[in-house]
Design goal:
Hypothetical Protein Yqey, Chain: A, domain1, mainly alpha, globular, single chain
């Protein structure tokens, strides 16, 4: 079952259960997927690949994380709590996140494979790391770990 079909099915369930937060979040995912679909459409009908669908949901999750950070800094815990609830729903559609240890092990493997020795090699390591860990780890976390490993 594609993500789009899953979204449609779960939207109906959220409507029936009356869970407004879940319903609004699922609607935002659906709208973002449709918007992306229209943007890639050529001639007639455009279909999103699984990777493109994942990118859309990851983008929505990143926006929620940024909003939580901003609302917390702005002393608006009520709004931060709402964004956190939506983020929890979004994370159900993302692949399981790797632990810090798993991310660090993957980065160390990439550093070994590329022969990276200093911060000059950061671009090469980051490119491979982000490709390998796409959707499984936060980009900021990956960047911080790469910097720590290469500067050690």
């Amino acid at each position: 079952m594609s993500l789009k079909e899953r979204i449609d099915r779960e939207m109906k369930e959220a409507l029936k259960s009356g869970d407004k937060t879940r319903l609004n979040t699922i609607r935002s995912i659906r709208a973002a997927l449709l918007e992306k679909e229209v943007s890639i459409r050529v001639g007639g009908k455009g279909e999103l690949s699984e990777e493109q669908e994942l990118e859309v949901v990851m983008g929505l999750a990143k926006r929620r994380r940024d909003a939580i950070e901003q609302f917390t800094a702005g002393n608006r815990p009520d709004l931060a709590e709402n964004e956190a609830a939506e983020l929890a729903v979004l994370e159900e559609y993302l692949p399981k996140q790797l632990s810090d240890e798993e991310v660090e092990a993957a980065i160390r493997d990439i550093v070994t494979q590329t022969g990276a020795a200093s911060m000059k090699d950061m671009g090469k390591v980051m490119g491979l790391a982000m490709k390998a860990l796409k959707g499984k780890a936060d980009g900021g976390k990956v960047q911080n770990l790469v910097k720590a490993i290469l500067s050690a």
